[in-house]
Amino acid sequence: MSQYLPHNNPDKAQIWDKYFSRSNFFLPALIWMQKKVLMPKFTKSVSAFINDGDKVMEAGCGTAMNTIHLAQTRAVKSYGLDMAPEALSRARVIADRENANIKLIKGKIENLTFPDNYFDMVWNHGVLEHYDEPLSVVDQMARVSNRVFIAVPRKTLMRKFLQKIKIIVGFTPDDIFHWYTEDDLVKMVDKSDHLTIRDHGSFNALGVFSWTWVCADKINSSSNKNNSQPNTASNKVVLIYPKSGLWEKLSIRLPLSLLHVAAVLIKEGFDVTFIDQRVDDDWEKKLLAALAENPLFVGVSSMTGTQIHHALKISELVKKNSTAPTIWGGVHVTLLPEQTLNHPLVDIGVLGEGELTIVELAHALQQNQPLNDIKGVIFKDSNGDLIKNERREMIKDLDILPELPYHLIDLSQYNSFDYQGEKSLDISTSRGCPFLCYFCYNTIFNHNRWRAHSANWIIMEMKKFIEKYQVKNVFFSR
Asked: CA neighbours within 13 Å on the CB side: how many for 218?
């Protein structure tokens, strides 16, 4: 992920910030220049690519003067984002003074937490040149919007003018950011796999301040090389069990929790692709093939620890190659729901037992229905805020759950523990625990309740293992 620079000298950057963001002299001068000279130029260029009613965000808004001017001159829903609290405070004062209806948000442009395609346009000026990998920032902007507009200082008279300030602050802007020609900016944006350039150009203010800009549209499904788009009518679902680290060196046990989720989805008529990263060397190829079929969602299991690293890598691959939402379930998201959903790679979380919740969730996504009434989920609303619904009641009678779809996996690749030189496979005979071990997830996940399958169910499951799958040794797990 790209990092915000000062390129060569952080100390000098702090001096720069002192003079141009906090100084009693330079800040009023900068605001006056923005309002009288630069804003009309910026917003005229941006306005050419938006429609009335659009939701538009300036990423890295600073004093928000351009955001304010756009809100005052166009009938758009204006947002401003900046990572500095003091900048947002100044921006709010100015917005209130100008009677401008804008929403200000604290956040980083290199780590946008909004849902995919949330905005009609995300734009900025004088920001991109501060990043060491600007293309990754542009792709972040493209993920959350349908159009991107970028303006950066041009390598012309503006640079020569700003070099003169060395006599004031002791260094030049060359020390803390990149300069671009128009051709540089066009070539950089053109490298994005997610954008196609719509137009580009440059403008001058007072014959000194010179900027170059590019406007780019998100590539649509007909031209996107991964050819994926939201498909709410799909009945295809992808479930992935990530690697879990050192535990795999002891044994690779059956992914029972995710098989239970697959079972209820299959019963409801969904077409499930099941991938276990621990045993499938071609998991990435298999996932990409599944994403090409426009699945309804991708479900990822999450256990706190090493598995989170692999789950994030999987989710990143999904985001780069599909518009399908990522749904995390399991222990980690149940223990830390807000922290998990604050990550831009996670769209929805299933809390606690997932069998009943995932069925309701799948039908809601398929029918493009709101998620507010589905128990046991946490998700991001249209404003990017987290909505955490009430927890779902636990399943009392485990015997009602459908038969596990062992045909989705290769049983020969699994082994609970060796017993007298032979493999064993595990059967989940119960859930939960009545004890209060503070280090255990059970207190939150199962509320210290223990529930068991009936003896008859356990016997029938063992017979099936022996007769259908020729498994001789069974390991009872919970």
From this structure: 24
